[in-house]
């Protein structure tokens, strides 16, 4: 082979990477929240943007002790590959709480993986997916690559409007409904008991799969606890194999997010397919992390939940009090009974995307509401998180945000 026979050199920059992407990859987009979080990394910024658990509440010593116990008890097995289904003692503990078999529980690497793999399993090109308006942005990111046709459901202070949904289902043939019934991300709203019962019955009657995303359910700081959609479904149909509800839970908000432990409860056909999908994604959730969580659920988690509820409840009340006192007339907000978020609706003439730029100049940040709408809208809304801000930061940040809004109205 001579020099003249050698392939011509190709500059890497000339390769058509965009043309190489699959249709699914082209539907991927950056998280608006994650992009905003880059701004808020500046230490002087008071951030109400990211839905971050309060780091000062993390049970660091308890996690350290649990890690030592796991290594002493399991040795090398704690650091070895494990089964895709997950650590059996943890699955058995979750199953016992739900009144189901461990075979109906799959451990996941964070609830975001649950949403991604469920979307991969259940959503085909053009399938109709019902979502709240607004809904969790991370769910839209997970579902978008699979080409769903979204239909937005109307909602009010009690969550999904079931009368309106019943009318929609007379003409809409939906495959899947995604909902966050407890302290919804982004609005903080809670679906009422009567509507929960109707939603389970209505979706069952229409043959619609219902994904219940419940990462915040344990963080209730006011009002009475309500049964999950999954619980109601089990009572209605008599067992997990008859239930059309898929329950997604997480330890991230009640223990620590960095261990990335979550779970799915569902009928065996869903669990079996989820195992196959997870094997292609990451084989299994880290063994060591699962064992640490298993050590904490009985001894540490109950008190940790009470601590989180007390702190978040105080911060939510303080934020709402400052907003009521300082925000201009015509600005409305939700009143969450738990969770980490509340939702603000501004007068129609305000667009919260450019408003964010002005707020950052006053060293405060939030998440504009538009990305939470599957089909557009919400230009005059914003999500505020109270979980990781101190009372002093809330005081200062809400005052700065009030000034920013007033300036936009003047």
UniProtKB/TrEMBL annotation:
| Alphabetized GO MF terms | pyridoxal phosphate binding; transaminase activity
| Family the entry assigns | Belongs to the class-I pyridoxal-phosphate-dependent aminotransferase family.
Query: Which InterPro entries does the entry mention?
Result: Aminotransferase_I/II_large, Class-I_PLP-dep_aminotransf, PyrdxlP-dep_Trfase, PyrdxlP-dep_Trfase_major, PyrdxlP-dep_Trfase_small
Print the keywords alphabetically: Aminotransferase, Pyridoxal phosphate, Transferase
| Record-annotated Aminotransferase class I/classII large domain positions | 57-401
Cofactor requirement: pyridoxal 5'-phosphate
Q: Output one GO BP term.
A: alpha-amino acid metabolic process
Q: Which organism is it from?
A: Deinococcus ruber
Asked whether the UniProt record includes Iron among its keywords, one would answer no
In Swiss-Prot or TrEMBL terms, this protein is called: 2-aminoadipate aminotransferase
Q: Partners and quaternary state?
A: Homodimer.
Write one Pfam family the protein is assigned to.
Aminotran_1_2
